[in-house]
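User: Please fill in residues for this 626-position structure.
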C-alpha cells in the first residue's frame, strides 16, 4: 500500500515538472477517444453463440486476458441474423494466444492474427487489440508512409480495446460483446446506426478509405447485404476515393467479388458497384463492353438474382461459374442468342479464344486460379453447344452430360430461357431430360479421373523417367540381361578354356590376375590394365594382413590404406620401391616394360609413349631402342 502511494507521488511530480506539449493541429487520420463507451446490458442466450468461440473466450479470461466477441458477429446477433463466422478481440498478443491453444496458428504480415482450427474445418479468428495511428508510428514506418499516401502497410502496434474499436472501419462493426457480463460495449454510436440502418464510417471517411481501399467495397457489401443506406458523408467520400481501389492487393479484390455473390445480395451489390463507378475500377476488362449496353446489364442482374436464389436453397456458386455469369452477357450475341428466343449459332466459333479476350487479362491481374479459369471456359463452351439441342450429336451429348460444369450450365440456360423463351426453352427441356440419366457430379468427377488416369498409366514414359512400376520393370529387365550375359560368358568359357571368360572388374581376386597375365602373354605383350579409380574392394591380402598392426591400434587405419605414409614411429615395413620406374630412369635396356595404369579418360594411343626418347611399340609387343 505504501509502495503504491510512493509511486503515485513520484508520478505526480514528474507530470508537474514536465514541460507542456505544444498544441498541434489535429491530424485528420487520428481519431481520439472523446467520451466513455456506452455499455448496454443486452443478454444473448449462450445457445445462440458458437460453443467453440465461448470456450476460447473463457480460456483467455481464465488466464487474466480480456476477450470479447467483436465485429460482424455482434452486429448480426443484434439484428437477429445468423453470423457467418465469429471473431474474437483480446488483449493477449498472438504469441500468448498460441501458448494457450496448441491448435493455433499465427498468420499475416501487415496484420498479424491468430487462427484457431477445429476438427470440422472451422476457423475462429483471434485478433489482438490494435492502437490508433500516431506520429511516432508514422515515423517508424509502421503506419502511413507519408502525408500523401495514407495506405497502411503495417498494423501490428497493439493497444487498448477502446483504441481498437475506434480504428475500425464502420460504426456497426466496432461493437464488443462481453460474454461474462452479458453487455454490449459501444464506442462510436454503433447501436444508434443499427437502429437507423445506415453504414457510417468512423472518423473522417475519406481518410478511412485511403488507409484501406478495400473498405470501399466493404461499405457496398454491408449496404447490400444488410439492406442499409450509406450515410451521405460516407457516400460522398466513397465517390471521391474510388480511384484508390487499384492500390489494394489483387487477391483481396477477388475475395470481395466472391463475397458479393456469396452473401445473398449479389444483384444489389453489383447495382451499387455500377452506381458508384466501382465496377469500372475493379473490372476494367468488362467495363468497356458493358458500357451503354442496357440489355447486357439486365441479363447480368437476372443471372445474379438467380445466384441469390440458389444460395438461399443451400447451393453456392463456385468462382468459375461466377465469372461465367459475368462473361455470358457479353458473349450471348456471339453465340447467336437473340432476345426473341431464336438461336442461330455461327459455325467454327472458337469460344475459348473469345472468352480469353476478357478472362485472361482479368485472371492475370487478380491472380485467379487456373482451375477457376478452366471451369469458366468449360461452362461457356458447354452453353454454346447446348442450344439448339437438335444439332448435338448423340456421342457429344454423352460426353457433355459427364462434365462437372453441366449443373451450373443448366441453371444458367434455364434462367436465359425464362427471360427469352423460344429455342432456349426447348433446349433446356431436352437437356434436363438427358441429365436425369447422367451420374451425380461426384461420380462424374471420379469416372473422369479414372478414365484419364487409365490413359496416363497405360504405358511408362520413355527415357527412364517412370516411377513405381517403371523401376520394377527396369530391375526385371536388368535381371534378364544379367542371366543372358552369364549364359553367354559360360558358353565362351567352355569354348576358350578356363581363362576364356569375360574378365570381371574385381580388385582383389588372384585368379583374375592370373587369367589376365595369361591372356597378355598369349598376345605377345603387356597391355595397360584398366584402373577402376576407386579403393580396392577385396580388402588386404593374406601377406598384407600379417604385417598390419592390431585392429585396436591407432596405426591400423593408416596401415590399411593403399599407400602407407612413411613414419619413423611405424614398426611395420615400408613398401618396396618401384623397380620398373627405377630401371626406366637408369636406362636399363634388358628390363621388361612395366605395366601401366590407364586413366578413365580413355585408351592411350599406341603410337606414342609417355617416356621421352622411347620409340613406338612393335607389333610383337617387344620394346625397341632408338
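Assistant: Residues filled in for all 626 positions:
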Amino acid at each position: 500500500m505504501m509502495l503504491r502511494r510512493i509511486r503515485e507521488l513520484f508520478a505526480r511530480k514528474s507530470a508537474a515538472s514536465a514541460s507542456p506539449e505544444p498544441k498541434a493541429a489535429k491530424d485528420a487520420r487520428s481519431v481520439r477517444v472523446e467520451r466513455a463507451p456506452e455499455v448496454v446490458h443486452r443478454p444473448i442466450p449462450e445457445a445462440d453463440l458458437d460453443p467453440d468461440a465461448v470456450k476460447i473466450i473463457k480460456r483467455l479470461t481464465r488466464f487474466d486476458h480480456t476477450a470479447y466477441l467483436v465485429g460482424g458477429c455482434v452486429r448480426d446477433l443484434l439484428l437477429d441474423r445468423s453470423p457467418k463466422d465469429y471473431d474474437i478481440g483480446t488483449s493477449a498478443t498472438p504469441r500468448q494466444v498460441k501458448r494457450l491453444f496448441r491448435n493455433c496458428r499465427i498468420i499475416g504480415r501487415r496484420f498479424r492474427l491468430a487462427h484457431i482450427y477445429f476438427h470440422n474445418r472451422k476457423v475462429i479468428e483471434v485478433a489482438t487489440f490494435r492502437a490508433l495511428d500516431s506520429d511516432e508510428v508514422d515515423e517508424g514506418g509502421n503506419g502511413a508512409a507519408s502525408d500523401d499516401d495514407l495506405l497502411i502497410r503495417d498494423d501490428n502496434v497493439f493497444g487498448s480495446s477502446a483504441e481498437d474499436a475506434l480504428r475500425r472501419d464502420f460504426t456497426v462493426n466496432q461493437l464488443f460483446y462481453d460474454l461474462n457480463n452479458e453487455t454490449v460495449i459501444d464506442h462510436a454510436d454503433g447501436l444508434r446506426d443499427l437502429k437507423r440502418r445506415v453504414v457510417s464510417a468512423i472518423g473522417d471517411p475519406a481518410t478511412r478509405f485511403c488507409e484501406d481501399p478495400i473498405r470501399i467495397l466493404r461499405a457496398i457489401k454491408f449496404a447490400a447485404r444488410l439492406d442499409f443506406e450509406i450515410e451521405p458523408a460516407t457516400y460522398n467520400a466513397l465517390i471521391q476515393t474510388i480511384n484508390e481501389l487499384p492500390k489494394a492487393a489483387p487477391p483481396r479484390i477477388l475475395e470481395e467479388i466472391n463475397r458479393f455473390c456469396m452473401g445473398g445480395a449479389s444483384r444489389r451489390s453489383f447495382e451499387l458497384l455500377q452506381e458508384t463507378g466501382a465496377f469500372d475500377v475493379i473490372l476494367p476488362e468488362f467495363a468497356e463492353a458493358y458500357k451503354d449496353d442496357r440489355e447486357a446489364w439486365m441479363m447480368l442482374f437476372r443471372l445474379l438474382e438467380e445466384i441469390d436464389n440458389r444460395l438461399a436453397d443451400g447451393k453456392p456458386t463456385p468462382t468459375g461459374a461466377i465469372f461465367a455469369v459475368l462473361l455470358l452477357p457479353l458473349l450471348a450475341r456471339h453465340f447467336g442468342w437473340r432476345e426473341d428466343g431464336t438461336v442461330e449459332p455461327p459455325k467454327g466459333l472458337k469460344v475459348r479464344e473469345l472468352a480469353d479476350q476478357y478472362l485472361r487479362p482479368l485472371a492475370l491481374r487478380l491472380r485467379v486460379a487456373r482451375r477457376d479459369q478452366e471451369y469458366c471456359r468449360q461452362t461457356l463452351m458447354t452453353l454454346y453447344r447446348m442450344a439448339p439441342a437438335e444439332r448435338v450429336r448423340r456421342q457429344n451429348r454423352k460426353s457433355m452430360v459427364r462434365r462437372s460444369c453441366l449443373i451450373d450450365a443448366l441453371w444458367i440456360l434455364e434462367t436465359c430461357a425464362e427471360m427469352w423463351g423460344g429455342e432456349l426453352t426447348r433446349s433446356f427441356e431436352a437437356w434436363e431430360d438427358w441429365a436425369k440419366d447422367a451420374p451425380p457430379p461426384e461420380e462424374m468427377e471420379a469416372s473422369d479421373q479414372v478414365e484419364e488416369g487409365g490413359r496416363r498409366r497405360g504405358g511408362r514414359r520413355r527415357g527412364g523417367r517412370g516411377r513405381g512400376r517403371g523401376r520394377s520393370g527396369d530391375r526385371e529387365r536388368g535381371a534378364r540381361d544379367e542371366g543372358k550375359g552369364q549364359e553367354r560368358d559360360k558358353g565362351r568359357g567352355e569354348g576358350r578354356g578356363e581363362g576364356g571368360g569375360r574378365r570381371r572388374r574385381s580388385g582383389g581376386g588372384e585368379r583374375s590376375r592370373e587369367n589376365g597375365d595369361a591372356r597378355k602373354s598369349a598376345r605377345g605383350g603387356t597391355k595397360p590394365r584398366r584402373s577402376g579409380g576407386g579403393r580396392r574392394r577385396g580388402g588386404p591380402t593374406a601377406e598384407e594382413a600379417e604385417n598390419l598392426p592390431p585392429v585396436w591400434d591407432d596405426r591400423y587405419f593408416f596401415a590399411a590404406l593403399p599407400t602407407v605414409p612413411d613414419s619413423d614411429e611405424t614398426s611395420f615395413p615400408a613398401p618396396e620401391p618401384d623397380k620398373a620406374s627405377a630401371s626406366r630412369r637408369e636406362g636399363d635396356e634388358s628390363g621388361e616394360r612395366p605395366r601401366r595404369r590407364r586413366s578413365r579418360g580413355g585408351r592411350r594411343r599406341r603410337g606414342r609413349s609417355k617416356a621421352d626418347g622411347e620409340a613406338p611399340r612393335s607389333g610383337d609387343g617387344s620394346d625397341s631402342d632408338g
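For context: The first strand starts at residue 38 and ends at 41.
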